[in-house]
Specification:
- The complex is a heterodimer of chains A (379) and B (465).
- With 379 residues, chain A is of the alpha+beta class.
- Chain A folds into two domains: 1-185, no CATH class; 268-372, Cytochrome Bc1 Complex, Chain D, domain 2.
- Chain A has 13 helices and six strands.
- Chain B has 465 residues and is mainly α.
- Chain B has one domain.
- Helices cover 68% and strands 0% of the residues of chain B.
- Chain B contains 16 helices and no strands.
- Chain B starts with 20 loop residues before the first helix and ends in a 20-residue tail after the last helix.
- The chains are: A alpha+beta (379), B mainly alpha (465).
- Chains A and B meet through α1, β2, α2, α3 and α4 of A and α1, α2, α6, α8 and α16 of B.
Chain lengths: 379, 465
């Protein structure tokens, strides 16, 4: 394996020596040189002629990104995506976003600085540098100070460099490396590497699957899934009628609600005169009425109110709703029948709200009109 | 250190004697490369047992739920939140030593900075476990703590102090960890070059990222360190401020006070220094670091405890005064109830340990005595734990409505987790001093006499001045 010269180095014993040597090397016009010290030494940056670091700009950019990003995000959540009134304050209570904004600004500034420094300024991680694992490195990592002048330097001349370093009082040595070592590039499509990736993804998928789909359904994680409560439409021994769902206690009245005053058995026709349909003939009303009619009334009365029930034979057939009787009834009479029932037909006031019942009346009127259309309706 | 009158015209040396950089390496690396002493294993056995107690308590907690604790209405925050605030507070000393004292150019911090930073991390870990487990079903806590897009269409509440706390503690932990790691990189590189086994060498080579001690890197590195110290300083103040908001933003008498943020920050530093002091004195003895962590350092730490302890004591008294001065009957009742109610013993433990005990540090003899420093630091730790207990429990147990008064009686599981958190903390400390350099090698070498160039104009041999 052919070895190439990486650099000529010199080791010094005191901080003063290294300072002078660094200055001498800089003054001699070398640019590709470096100084290695076990700890930072004051004044070395000037001696080497290094420019002020630009790291601060990275910090600034990352910090601003964090601050602006976080306050915008919090504002978007609070105003647009998930507006909540909290403590009676306006949606956009920006002073309350200051703490989180501050924390994220600091977080991004620090991570940005460190990440930027390591990746862009240091080009780390890099554990295969020619200087690694040399006696030179072992000395400067402990208590010696070293200079390296790289062979890449434009005015590099081995003899001249050695002479220069000697005159500054250093112990001169050279570092060689093999091209293969430095240009080693890992092969992405190495089967072993791919196998590793596949293995990792399988393991994480399996782990995630087990955790979210299996483990979380084991005790104690599932203890809140099983709750001692009744579900709707289920049976129970607890109540006499065997049902879990309860009706309101007899005579209970909802807040702000005036109970329907007429009882079963009152003549629908006479009651109907006192009731006025509060709804207008709008499309929304008729749609609502149609929906409720098809849900609650059609099983017995048929889809069009003809009394051709789907329950034929299992329940006394209801009369048609297109009879003269019902057609000539005032709206209130149909409303009353629907509310309290009539003979075998039960009342529907618990299932269908007051407004919905009026809408059903409107829909029945529409059906009646359709069945008894006048000449003029056809145009 | 002789006890003669101090000559203030000279800087007190950070470390004693004139060690060479190589001998420093030797001393610091020794515990890492040597087989540990018997005492280390004894210590690990003790802390491991404590950790085990914590583990059992935790398993039972996960199985049964938070009902195994003594908490209930009206005291729904018990040991969980007491321990959280206690441990977060401990962490603050580390950042103070590594960041604030760095900005103030206090060189004596060098010997203890690494240590204190590690303790910060461990303390915050101990703290975080309590807030996670007190949520009841921590396996779902992700959803309550972090804003992430989810199918419920729900976001966290950014105006809640509890949410601020999530952000503050997370940022604090991350920044402390990064700060610590950055400080360790050159030391990892030193360890890499002095490693005795291949495993150690590979590990340290990877951890050092390939550090080459190049001055072209040191240049950025030093700036990064300065920037991070600059950020960590206000950060550490913000963290305990926000922790105090968890209380102060509510309207509960005893919590709803504007003095809380500064008072909490002072208390955090106070308790943190006490904990660092305790661990430091033991390590210093065990690893023979007497010349690196000098008596002078310990004395300075005691002085800081004296200052912060007095600040905390002032806050206690001022709170009482304001309760009376405000003319608010409920507020006054809460404070009188603290001192004379069913939890009077907690209040007076706190007062004795935090207000009276550190005042002994006025005496030079006491603050330069290892034994006294150690004992008083333990007192401070106890006192600061009780401070949080007093603030949380006594404020909750009796507030506006006498019909809803109640008592908090901790169960054995409360104590189990408290012991467990100490076990976790000290186990981590023991592992740290064994496997990582407990003193920042690169930093301490830089403050040895003669480590820096003498005046540029004269061409001397690096004599110190």
């Amino acid at each position: 394996m052919e070895k190439k010269l990486y650099s000529i180095n010199a080791i010094y014993h005191t901080p003063n020596d290294i300072l002078h040597a660094a200055k001498a090397v800089k003054d001699a016009g070398y640019t590709k040189f470096d100084v290695h010290t076990p700890y930072p030494i004051h004044g070395l940056d000037d001696a080497m002629g290094l420019k002020e670091t630009k790291l601060g700009f990275v910090t600034l950019a990352a910090g601003i990104l964090g601050a602006v990003g976080m306050i915008s995000f919090a504002s978007w959540v609070a105003v647009k995506d998930y507006p909540q009134v909290i403590g009676g304050k306006p949606y956009w209570s920006w002073p309350a976003f200051v703490p989180v904004t501050y924390e994220i600004a600091v977080l991004l500034a620090v991570l940005g600085t460190v990440g930027g420094m390591i990746v862009f300024f240091f080009k780390f991680p890099n554990t295969s540098h020619p200087l690694h694992d040399t006696t030179f490195m072992k000395k400067v990592s402990s208590d010696k100070f070293g200079i390296t002048i790289q062979a890449e330097d434009a005015q590099f001349d081995e003899k001249k460099v050695r002479d220069l370093l000697k005159t500054t009082g250093g112990e001169v040595e050279a570092i060689y490396y093999s091209d293969e070592f430095l240009n080693f590039k890992p092969n992405t499509f190495d089967p072993k590497f791919i196998l590793l990736l596949v293995g990792i993804s399988l393991a994480t998928s399996a782990g995630g699957y087990l955790y979210w789909n299996k483990v979380l359904y084991l005790p104690p994680f599932d203890w809140m899934v099983e709750q001692p409560r009744f579900d709707v439409q289920s049976a129970t021994d607890y109540f006499e009628d065997g049902r879990t769902m309860r009706l309101p206690v007899e005579g209970s009245v909802a807040r702000g609600f005036i109970p329907y005053p007429y009882k079963l058995g009152v003549n629908a026709d006479s009651v109907g005169r006192f009731l006025v349909n509060p709804l207008l003939n709008t499309k929304a009303t008729l749609d609502l009425g149609k929906r409720k009619f098809l849900t609650y009334c059609s099983p017995c009365h048929g889809n069009f109110g003809n009394g051709d029930s789907r329950m034929n034979g299992q329940f006394p057939n209801p009369p048609t709703l297109h009879s003269d009787k019902v057609r000539l009834w005032p709206d209130g009479a149909i409303f009353h029948t629907m509310t309290v029932g009539q003979n075998v037909m039960p009342g529907y006031q618990y299932q269908i709200s007051r407004e919905e019942r009026w809408a059903v009346v409107k829909y029945i009127r529409t059906l009646q009109r359709a069945y008894n259309a006048k000449e003029s309706d056809l145009q | 250190m002789s006890s003669t009158v101090l000559d203030y015209s000279k800087e007190i040396p950070v470390i004693e004697g004139v060690p060479t950089a190589a001998s420093l390496d030797e001393a610091i690396v020794k515990p890492i490369n040597d087989f540990p002493q018997r005492n280390w294993f004894i210590g690990l056995a003790i802390t491991g047992t404590m950790l085990g107690i914590g583990g059992i308590s935790l398993a039972w907690l996960l199985w049964k739920g938070v009902g195994i604790w003594g908490i209930n209405q009206p005291v729904a925050w018990g040991f969980d939140v007491v321990n959280f605030v206690f441990w977060v507070g401990i962490g603050h000393a580390g950042t103070l030593i590594s960041a604030i004292l760095f900005l103030l150019r206090q060189k004596w911090r060098t010997g203890i900075a690494r240590f204190a930073e590690a303790m910060t991390l461990f303390a915050v870990l101990c703290a975080v476990q309590f807030v996670i487990f007190h949520t009841g079903r921590p396996w779902l806590a992700m959803a309550w703590l972090f804003p992430y897009p989810n199918q419920h269409g729900v976001w966290v509440n950014f105006t809640s102090p509890l949410e601020w706390d999530v952000f503050a503690v997370n940022t604090y932990f991350t920044v402390s960890a990064v700060f610590w790691y950055i400080g360790l990189i050159p030391d990892f590189a030193s360890l890499r070059d002095r490693a005795t086994t291949t495993i150690k060498k590979t590990t340290f080579a990877v951890l050092s990222l390939g550090w080459r001690f190049s001055n072209r890197h040191w240049q950025h590195y030093e700036r990064a360190y300065l920037i991070m110290a600059g950020f960590a300083t206000p950060l550490v103040l913000s963290v305990h401020t926000i922790v105090s908001f968890d209380f102060a933003v509510s309207v509960l008498p005893g919590w709803h006070t504007t003095i809380f943020p500064p008072y909490f920050v002072a208390g955090a530093i106070f308790s943190g220094f006490a904990m660092v002091q305790n661990v430091l004195i033991v390590t210093r003895k065990a690893f023979k670091f007497e010349h690196l962590i000098t008596m002078d350092t310990i004395e300075k730490m005691n002085k800081i405890m004296l200052v912060t302890g007095t600040m905390v004591g002032y806050a206690y008294i001022m709170e009482f005064f304001i309760a009376w001065y405000s003319g608010n009957a409920t507020e006054l009742f809460v404070f009188i109830n603290r001192a004379t109610g069913p939890y009077w013993w907690a209040y007076w433990t706190m007062m004795t340990c935090n207000l009276v005990a550190p005042q002994l540090f006025w005496s030079k003899k006491i603050r330069t005595s290892l034994l006294a420093s150690f004992i008083l630091a333990i007192f401070v730790n106890i006192g600061m734990w009780f401070e949080r207990f007093v603030i949380i429990v006594t404020s909750l147990h009796r507030d506006f409505l006498p019909s809803s008064w109640g008592m908090f009686i901790p169960t054995m599981w409360d104590f189990g987790l408290l012991i467990g958190s100490f076990g976790l903390f000290f186990t981590l400390v023991l592992l740290f001093v064994k496997f990582l350099p407990a003193i920042a090698m690169a930093e301490i070498k830089a403050v040895v006499p003669g480590a820096q160039p003498s005046h540029p104009s004269h061409n001397g041999n690096g004599t110190s001045h």
